[in-house]
Design a protein that fits this description.
heterodimer, A: Maltoporin, Chain A, 13-stranded antiparallel β-sheet, six-stranded mixed β-sheet, 50% strand, B: 152 residues, mainly beta, seven-stranded antiparallel β-sheet, 7 strands
């Protein structure tokens, strides 16, 4: 605690030194945008705008990436989340997000929260234990804004016990102006960390909007062998159709080459301690099992190569009092892992493992259906169907078959807003027999071959009270489900 | 709560509080201070072996963050970022001590016709705190960087 007060004191001193030179107005606050083609049911009153580009309401925190600022590199989603209250980010490498990093909302990590791109879930099936979201692949190049819901009270998002992180991507503009907005940037930081990034954003004849971005980033890392480089491409076309309908066709690709930190322990001189690097011991936490064993320096190099492809098609059509949303998506991940499966006792065993994870899905939604729109009472309804197949070809194409339907009603009456909903899941999944189910002595590796079905209703109730113009209180109670890792 | 892929913790209760206060003074300064507390109670599982998978214990109970963003002159902004993280447990190693970080950044924008140029310089962990976010992964003391960008 003493260290904090020391740092706070330095901050205060620096603030005092620059206090007299303020002379011009504050930068513009972020403006609400609807470029992603999303409709808005009930206006949200911003309770706080604590940081540039950040808005907090009782429903969610919204971060507008173009206005967001921090003292440091802003390259990945993790860089943003580190600055947001109620979110914990545990990093292995301070310079770039790594596959083994851990992120949690209010103490619940990726296994119990949902991460989405444009409203569709990107959590993996979690092979090798806890590898669920690859934060290294999520750069900010094509992100318009990030929406964070804390807690599991929104039935519009599946498996959201801890909360939701929803990435809304840039989708171009409806404009007659042919000149695109072009952005280029580059940077260099400690440990040979560098990046270069470019993007174009624009539209053609009010018929087509487009956004394309590309970036490369690399670092030598702080720990021994903890290098990393990433290539990222993202983009797509937004078609503006008759009757105010829109069709977005988007794609993202990410390549990550990540070096696993290797042992650097003066107590193990047989592995070649290098005093130029900090110690790295066999007792280091491996919260995500990447990898599970001690790794050795030199050749062969323990490392991870990951290619991830995301494809999305989103059709939005105003129909009657609401909007129909049809979202088709697929994620295709390929991992090529080179690592030691055993070091002690000798001989060391080095292995190459290739795995794939494929997710395919469909979301059908009739959203923001205006049932009542009086001055003192408004009532909106959203109904939807969510279908996902998650597998690991070629060994098992469908590990999970997830079907769910949901309904959410939002009623605003005076200073009160009532948000009630329910989601019903049916999940067919291939899992394991735990060691105690298989009658083995503890602890033992689980046995494959178990199949099970889970289903049930998961309701949610939330009430908001707008006590004053800038003061709101809310309470929520909900039952939520977690998709277990195989 | 963690990788309890093979068993369920009988019951768990998580609770906490988040406080944030921000201030805009004379429209040239924006400040934020936030505090969060989080804790959990979980029934002991008979299947817990050696390592802990009660992962909320690796997150800090107390976090304090203070951010100040000051306009020094036309399109020139200084950002100060201080955070305190309380002591935490780890999955299979010793308990980690608390730490505090001081980060400093400066951003300057220039406008030429319809082109915007920006330069950012930053220094992180300026007080040289010795810390780990994840047990076993040491973080560097001071780090520095510069970025440049343009929009047109």
């Amino acid at each position: 605690m003493r260290a904090f007060w020391g740092s706070l004191g330095i901050t205060g001193l620096l603030l005092a030194l620059v206090w007299p030179v303020w002379a011009a107005p504050l930068e513009k606050p972020p403006e609400a945008t609807t470029t992603s083609g999303e409709s808005v049911a009930l206006e949200q009153i911003t309770i706080m705008a604590p940081q540039p580009g950040v808005e907090i309401t009782t429903e969610k925190t919204v971060i507008h990436i173009d206005q967001f600022r921090r003292a440091g590199l802003l390259r990945t989603l993790e860089d943003v989340l580190q600055e947001i209250g109620g979110i914990d980010v545990l990093r292995q490498n301070p310079m770039l997000a790594s596959p083994g990093d851990e992120v949690a909302i209010r103490g619940l990590s990726e296994g119990r929260m949902v991460v989405e791109i444009d409203g569709r879930r990107i959590n993996h099936t979690g092979h090798f234990g806890r590898y669920i979201v690859d934060w290294a692949t999520l750069t900010v190049d094509d992100i318009e804004r990030v929406e964070i819901i804390r807690g599991g009270h929104s039935v519009l998002h599946p498996f959201a016990i801890g909360g939701v992180i929803n990435i809304i991507t840039k989708k171009g503009k409806k404009t007659k102006e042919l000149k695109p907005d072009v952005s280029l940037s580059t940077g260099y930081a400690s440990f040979n960390t560098n990046f270069v990034q470019g993007s174009v954003d624009g539209g053609l004849w009010e018929r087509v909007g487009y956004h394309f971005s590309a970036s490369r980033q690399a670092t030598d890392g702080f720990l021994r062998n903890n290098f990393q480089w990433n290539n990222n491409f993202a983009g797509g076309l937004q078609f503006f159709l008759p009757f105010d309908a829109t069709l977005w066709l988007g794609a993202r690709y990410s390549h990550v080459n990540y070096g696993f930190p290797v042992v650097n322990d003066p107590a193990l001189p047989q592995f070649g301690f290098d005093p130029n690097y900090p110690p790295f011991l066999a007792t280091a936490d491996m919260l995500r099992h990447l990898p599970t064993a001690l790794q050795l320096p030199g050749f062969p190099i323990p490392q991870w190569n990951k290619d991830t492809y995301y494809l999305d098609a989103i059709l939005m059509v105003p129909v009657g009092p609401g909007t129909v949303r049809v979202h088709l998506f697929t994620t295709n991940g390929r991992r090529d892992i080179h690592y030691y499966t055993r070091v002690l006792p000798p001989p060391a065993v080095f292995s190459n493992v290739q795995t794939r994870d494929v997710t395919q899905g469909l979301i059908l939604e009739y959203k923001d259906v205006k049932l009542v729109d009086w001055e003192n009472f408004k009532n909106y309804l959203t109904v939807g169907f969510d279908y996902q197949l998650l597998g690991s070809p070629p060994t098992n194409n469908i590990i999970y078959n997830v079907k769910s339907v949901y309904l959410q009603d939002v009623a605003k009456w005076g200073k009160f807003t009532f948000t009630n909903g329910v989601r019903y899941y049916t999940i067919d999944m291939d899992t394991y027999y735990a060691w105690f189910e298989a009658g083995k002595p503890a602890p033992a590796f689980p046995t494959e071959g178990k199949q099970q079905r889970e289903s049930g209703f998961f309701p949610s109730f939330k009430i908001d009270w707008q006590a004053a113009q800038n003061t709101a209180l809310y309470g929520a109670i909900s039952r939520a489900m977690r998709l277990p890792c195989p | 709560m963690g990788s309890n892929c093979l068993y369920n913790i009988p019951s768990v209760k998580m609770y906490g509080v988040e406080l944030e206060a921000s201030v805009n003074l004379e429209k040239r300064f924006r400040g934020l201070i936030s505090y969060s507390y989080q804790a959990f109670d979980a029934k002991e599982s008979p299947f817990q072996q050696g390592w802990s998978y009660y992962l909320p214990l690796v997150y800090p109970k107390h976090k304090i963050k203070a951010i100040g963003r000051i306009r020094l002159w036309e399109d020139g902004w200084l950002q100060l970022d201080t955070r305190f993280i309380s002591a935490r447990s780890s999955q299979k190693g010793p308990r980690l001590g608390s730490y505090a970080l001081l980060n400093l950044g400066f951003e300057q924008k220039f406008k030429f016709w319809q082109q915007e140029l920006s330069i950012n310089v930053f220094g992180n962990n300026l007080t040289g705190a010795h810390y780990q976010e994840m047990q076993g992964f040491y973080m560097p003391r001071q780090t520095f960087g510069v970025t440049v960008g343009t929009k047109f």
